[in-house]
Amino acid sequence: MNKKQQQIFDDYLAGRGDRSSKRKFFRLFREESGISDLKKRMAEDWDAISFTNSHKDLSPILQKIHFLIRSDSENASGPKKMTRALKLFARIAAVLLLPLLVINALLFFFAEKPESEPTLVEIISPLGARVKTELPDGTITWLNSGSELSYYIPFENRNVQVKGNAFFDVKSDSLHPFTVRGNNAEVKVLGTRFNVEMWPEEDIVEVVLEEGVVEFKPDRCEQSFQMTPGEQLVFDNEKRKLTRKQVEPEIYSSWIDGKLLLRGENMVRTARELSRWFNVDVVVEDSTIYDYTFRGTFKDEKLEEILRLLKLTSPIDYVIEDNKQDSAGNFSRKKVIIQHQ
Asked: Which pLDDT value is given to residue 295?
């Protein structure tokens, strides 16, 4: 990499330059010679993270990224290609914890390409992981384990769809409200920080506001509800019932710091939380323990440790079945069976 190319590289990393300089940055990696330069920079970022295994071989990942860039420049790109590429990049971020720079750069690369139709972008947080990313408008979002976020490029309307649990730090723009849709409801904001739970398999939608002002509106409801900081709003889609109360909002977003929080949920909800957090199947076999509730905050505890603590506070027992291989060579997820003691 010569001095001019190095300057282009450094300007982009520092957030300097216009759209023309950004296009020059991406062109650096359309040629084979760009692989070694990108590899070197990614390796430096990797070494900057305090991991014991800091010299991980990034060659296979780089080959996939470079292949996708070349394929996209040579062939017509559509929603499927875009979605597949971004799923790969999101997975890289979740597993390797690479800096957001690489993902944002590649997002911008795809966004720069002229499209005759809007392009769907999907970001998926794998079970057992959490993903942080920056949207095209500068909004920062975190996705909890097993959650999904989707939106269309161009992103002028600032509409996103959520399945699961997400936290948003919304970039302020008074002319373009930011809208989150999911589970038959929507939340509209200008600039704020808030947590949403919109699991499609559950009847409950929950919004907790940390900063700013948001407007919540369920589908098939003419009335909208404005929230203020420190407020929690819970809407039951089946019963069409809304409840609101004052809470400590930081507690509800503690998962972005790697904390698993049980807030007095019953056994069924607790089982779902454990299943998503640890990527296991949790089955509650005895209906007599459905209504048992649990509270606690866990940071680095393993699944077995949490189960032992639950057993100490309630008359329950559990069995852990290791993952099994079927005739096709596929492995099932680890299974936890919870029953009455």
From this structure: 87
